[in-house]
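Subject: mismatched residue count in predicted assembly?

I count 880 residues in my input, but I want to confirm that the predicted structure covers every chain. Input:
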Amino acid sequence: MRLSDKAEEILESLWINTHELNQESSSFEEMKTDKDAPEVKELLSADYIALSEDGIRLRKEGMKEAENAVRRHRLAERLMVDVLDIKKSLMEETACRFEHLLHKEVEESICTLLGHPTLCPHGKPIPQGRCCKKSERAAKAIVSSIADVDKGAKGKVAYLHMRDNKKLQKLMAMGILPGVSIEVIQKFPSYVFKIGHSQIAMDEEMARDVYVRLK
Amino acid sequence: MNAKFKKSRGSCHSNVNVTVEGLGKIVLVGSPNVGKSVVFGNLTGKYVTVSNYPGTTVEVTRGKGRLGSKEFEVIDTPGMYSLLPITEEERVTRSMLLEESPDVVVQVADAKSIERLLHLTLQLIEAELPVILDLNLMDEAERLGLSIDLNLLEQELGIPVVATVATENRGMDVLKEGIIKYNKEGGQGFKYDAVIEAAIDNLQKTLKTEYNISKRVIALLLLQDDPEIKALVKEKMGNGYADVGRIIEETKKRYSQPLNYVITLARQKVVSSIVERVAISTISKGMDFRERLSRLMMHPLWGIPMLLLAIYGLYEFVGVFGAQVSVDFLENKVFGEYINPFATNLVSSIIPWKVIQELFVHQYGIITLGIRYAIAIILPIVTTFFIAFSIIEDTGYLPRLAMLIDRLFKKIGLNGRAVIPIVLGFGCDTMATMVTRTLETKRERIIATLLLSLAIPCSAQMGVILALLAGNVKGLWIFVSVMAIIFLFVGFLVAKIMPGEKPIFYMEMPPLRWPKFSNVFTKTYTRVEWYFKEILPLFILASILIWAGRITGLFDLVINILSYPVGWIGLPTEAATAFLYGFFRRDFGAAGLYDLKDAGILSGIPLIVSIVTLALFMPCIAQFSITIKERGLKMALGMAAFIFPFAFFVGFLVNKILIGMGVVL
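Triage response: the counts match. Full output below for your records.
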């Protein structure tokens, strides 16, 4: 059974409240709904939530479904920012609509494309999916932050993260630009990359913002 | 475009004539560590500090040179990667270009990073500056198997291009000829996409006043949110700026990415296509020895023995050869047996009054104390340190050290880049305090300045300290450990207390290079010369002050007061004299302790305590005055107010701990 968009939103908020804010139950006001709303009925009949004194709480049965909803939302955000370069102000709204379109297979391909990211653009953890667990053993991400690839890896810069314009400008000044070939020479204590015929060292903070497509 | 160019250039010429006695003006620009200073030396015959470390040219250097029959003013600028500045140095250089109206701009560039250097070239062409591209370090590019078709590149860019190896004087005559014959026909700019071009067009129409660089570049910099250019345009336009702001905002809305990214990417496309046509890179045949050594130096594990090896070499050369062998020879032989007795006899026979005699000779005289300390103790130590430092600097080891130490330095609020001032501080803290201005944030500059004042003993002081602890391995270890702990602890605390941005580390790793004898020699020479100009007058002044202080009884008063804290930390009262003199120069104080030790008054735990306290104690007058200049009086006084009691507090603790632990020295 597929849940309605509204119901998915509620599951998401509940999951965040229980898992990240340690808040057992949530009021209807906070969830922007009420006791008789169709989405609440829908969730109650699926046994995903239960009514509590001051609102609703997530039940164990709904946990997995809620986690997946959060995962889809954050993956959608990641996709907006990393690949589609959509402005942060627009991202929220677009991601909200987009997440409901992500079916299982699409979700996994997007997760793989993004290199099984662990954090959303706001820095919150993205719950792992089946594909992530598999990837820990096998396939490498197609595009991933250069901070996460192995020493000796070669590839081309795919894009730069743009959350911090100052850092972005430094990276560009050092010649780290999309399309440029890059090789990881060293990862510890600092990152050292070979770009063209020169070598550049930087800390993890900065390396984190460089995304590469491995050869 | 050409007509417009001529117009703006006309205004340049009138400027040149007004500002500098009609000399042609050559400005050298380029990314850090590509040899601008060497080119400067070749053009002017003047030497500026040259090293294999990005960011060593802190200030703009000016010199005069004669090319053919024409005299030029040559200006060397701090490194700049892009016309859109990030660091303070880049800002300095950019404003040079904005204000100086040069006749020729020579972009000195590292040939092997052609893909990056062309970004700046294109920006300079866009600015309609009269630019010549000098592909320097051609030997390194060749060694890496990179060859560049100069003629084709000239055609592509529409400006003169020369290839040089400045350190070997290769190609310099071609560059000089290029400068003499320079005749600007206008380089070939390129077009951005329609939206950006339209914005540039609109902005150019809106910008009414003239600038020293093209309006096209002003427009581009405005679009990229350059705060300085914005302020400049606002100042010139007043209320008219509103239109400019509107155009910028409207253009921004058309893109999802920041405009500096959009513009750089557009330029990158042009750069790539040029590079594809003009450069041929043969596949390198694995790693050569140089590269292997470089990787060893950067290795988290193997890097440590490499560092220890470097420190050991430094110790043997500076600590043993400089501070012991050479000092011993100059101090005991040259001064002890010849100069001092001779001067004392001479002065005594000419001047009958003992009081005046004491100004020149005897225990604290200008000759027997001031000049003796300067020449016999300080000179050999400082010289050997600067020789060693120049060699290390030339090889390119320091950036590797920066990269190794970055994580540790982050804990104390600095980043890897701070190794240069810190290591230089072991040579001369005054010089190092000046160099802190290459650090990016104000917070880093303050922390580095404080640590230099507090916990980094300069070479002169170190030399005397090493002599004091000669043969005392345990004492040396205690001293080194205490200083290291204080350095990290105070740095950690200050970083915790002081708010501010977290530092970011990024740095180019230049290839390892063989140090050149001539370079090491001239570099050491200029540094020692600078040091002496700075210190000898102060030494003489200190001798005079000490003399005056002694005959007026003022010194006895200060020494009396100082003898209390000195007593609290378990030292003989005579040490108070050394501490007072320590303010005149750090090493002066240490040398004073040396005399006490020689006389058998100071030994064991009190010796260690006094060395630690003195090393932490106030910076010397010169460093203090530079600290005021760089950080402001308030900050300098604040630091002094912390350091003075803190030094005695640490001395007190060390004394108690060593006694408590029953350490026997």
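The longest strand of chain A covers residues 154-160. Marking this ticket as 'not a bug'.
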